[in-house]
Amino acid sequence: MNNTAAPTSIVKAATEGERRWFAGGGVHTWKVRAKDSDGAFLMFEDRMEQGKVTPLHFHPETDEMFMVLEGEILMHLDGTEQSIAEGGMMLATRGLPHAFMVTSPFARMLCLQTPGNIESFFWDASDPIADDVSTGEVDFDRIAASGQRNGGMVLLGPPPFAH
Description:
Elements (H helix, E strand, L loop, with lengths): L17 E5 L4 E6 L9 E8 L6 E3 L4 E8 L1 E6 L2 E6 L3 E4 L5 E5 L3 E9 L4 H6 L1 E3 L11 H11 L3 E4 L6
Antiparallel strand pairs: 1-2, 1-11, 2-3, 3-10, 4-12, 5-8, 5-10, 6-7, 6-9
């Protein structure tokens, strides 16, 4: 007997997907949940305002890829900084220390986490928001607590950017 799930497909319009305010700053629009990909990956769009910054961190069991759809970010990857503009991408493999800062008036990225084992971290560190809401409270303590409770992310220190 074959116990594997039948293949499924997902199609979503640009505005479709659950919108959540992430406590690290930014609006996540969830496109593919881990359960939708049988745990293979998690994908969401992230819209952020200028100055949004992440602390230095790493993901012990997850590779993280960003595709910049609009705007520009400054990416810190294992001690090296590089600007990534619209159409550019970055990959932080599991265990690689990284952080980023939005340098344009706003930025929009497609974020892919593989495997999807990090979903509980992001879910616990975010709240559902209405379609007309685009801001919320930034709370790095909540981010750290979610990482401790759910795994998936280890904080190493404050944002590493000089400016």
